[in-house]
Amino acid sequence: MTQPQSVGVVTAQKAVFDQPISLACGTTLPRYELVYETYGQLNADKSNAILICHALSGNHHVAGKYAETDKATGWWDNMIGPGKPIDTNRFFVIGLNNLGGCHGSTGPSSIDPETGKPYGSRFPLVLVRDWVETQARLADSLGIDRFAAIIGGSLGGMQALRWTISHPQRVRHALVIASAPKLTAQNIAFNDVARQAILTDPEFHGGDYYEHGTVPRRGLRLARMLGHITYLSDDGMGEKFGRLLRSGEYKYGFDVEFEIESYLRYQGDKFSTLFDANTYLLMTKALDYFDPSRDYEGDLSKALAQTAAKFLVVSFTTDWRFSPSRSREIVKALLDARKDVSYAEIESQHGHDAFLMEDPAYHGVMRAYLNRIAEEIAR
């Protein structure tokens, strides 16, 4: 077996689409751009391509570094590279920043050609099905008719699922990780509280803060802190932080005293300098609206009846944001529709964030399934 390595130094690319796209919300964008990265080599018959769909705060930088001196790597670097579960010696891997994103693809901070100003509040809401259509156009531009696999965790898993419904003949395998067929009321509630933190920030200016030279940093910081709590498990938090005090004694005030408070504020502060508030609003709404069964009388098995892909569904025991029971709903619907599906429930203390972690059992499942795909391609 090849010893796992990094994909090394990578470069982002940009695809420009001058053909208008009609969005599910009823708005049409006359043109848009998508930023993406690729790793590995596309084979002669273009049958070894894998699309990675990112989650809420993800982007196109999935693996590798932009310079040898960089300390940070792509957000799924432990999964993608030579000899890793998604082996770039075998697969041509694509990561992209979705439409509405804030890492180079057309989004709220981009310039609206009609006004010469940032879109801001005028940028339309995008749904998961819209992302799938833009991803399909990117695949067309690369000459890829069918993906060997489409893989995603959380919101990325929803995109993988949507692909199998919207373009059933273009997906051989869909890997749906730590995801759900639709959000629960509790999840929608968490998203709304996060949005309210941003919407009520005085620096938000109705979404047009770019023109005011401000950033709704306080709102975005709170939204991230709330979200981060839901991505972790109670056991994981307890083991890492417990009730540890920074100074070892109570200070009887409202400043940071507990280590968990320090950690959450650090995460919130960091995120508020790296992410765009309007994009956060769009991404959480896309999560809320996702429900492929809606067009099929609420019957998920009917929605999945026309799919042609084979599926791997993965969940994690301590993920309470997207619990294993939600993954099992997907599995049941696929079985009811007589589809080929494998399921793995991984023991983990990392909560929802487990899909990003380097866990031997999880990586073992991924490696075994991806090996199967590589063998199919080689036949």
From TrEMBL:
<comment type="function">
    <text>Transfers a succinyl group from succinyl-CoA to L-homoserine, forming succinyl-L-homoserine.</text>
</comment>
<keyword id="KW-0486">Methionine biosynthesis</keyword>
<feature type="domain" description="AB hydrolase-1">
    <location>
        <begin position="48"/>
        <end position="356"/>
    </location>
</feature>
<feature type="binding site">
    <location>
        <position position="353"/>
    </location>
    <ligand>
        <name>substrate</name>
    </ligand>
</feature>
<keyword id="KW-0808">Transferase</keyword>
<feature type="binding site">
    <location>
        <position position="224"/>
    </location>
    <ligand>
        <name>substrate</name>
    </ligand>
</feature>
<dbReference type="InterPro" id="IPR029058">
    <property type="entry name" value="AB_hydrolase_fold"/>
</dbReference>
<keyword id="KW-0012">Acyltransferase</keyword>
<comment type="subunit">
    <text>Homodimer.</text>
</comment>
<keyword id="KW-0028">Amino-acid biosynthesis</keyword>
<protein>
    <recommendedName>
        <fullName>Homoserine O-succinyltransferase</fullName>
        <ecNumber>2.3.1.46</ecNumber>
    </recommendedName>
</protein>
<dbReference type="InterPro" id="IPR000073">
    <property type="entry name" value="AB_hydrolase_1"/>
</dbReference>
<dbReference type="GO" id="GO:0009086">
    <property type="term" value="P:methionine biosynthetic process"/>
</dbReference>
<dbReference type="GO" id="GO:0005737">
    <property type="term" value="C:cytoplasm"/>
</dbReference>
<dbReference type="InterPro" id="IPR008220">
    <property type="entry name" value="HAT_MetX-like"/>
</dbReference>
<dbReference type="GO" id="GO:0008899">
    <property type="term" value="F:homoserine O-succinyltransferase activity"/>
</dbReference>
<dbReference type="GO" id="GO:0009092">
    <property type="term" value="P:homoserine metabolic process"/>
</dbReference>
<feature type="active site" description="Nucleophile">
    <location>
        <position position="154"/>
    </location>
</feature>
<keyword id="KW-0963">Cytoplasm</keyword>
<feature type="active site">
    <location>
        <position position="352"/>
    </location>
</feature>
<comment type="similarity">
    <text>Belongs to the AB hydrolase superfamily. MetX family.</text>
</comment>
<feature type="active site">
    <location>
        <position position="319"/>
    </location>
</feature>
<feature type="site" description="Important for acyl-CoA specificity">
    <location>
        <position position="321"/>
    </location>
</feature>
<comment type="pathway">
    <text>Amino-acid biosynthesis; L-methionine biosynthesis via de novo pathway; O-succinyl-L-homoserine from L-homoserine: step 1/1.</text>
</comment>
<dbReference type="Pfam" id="PF00561">
    <property type="entry name" value="Abhydrolase_1"/>
</dbReference>
<dbReference type="GO" id="GO:0004414">
    <property type="term" value="F:homoserine O-acetyltransferase activity"/>
</dbReference>
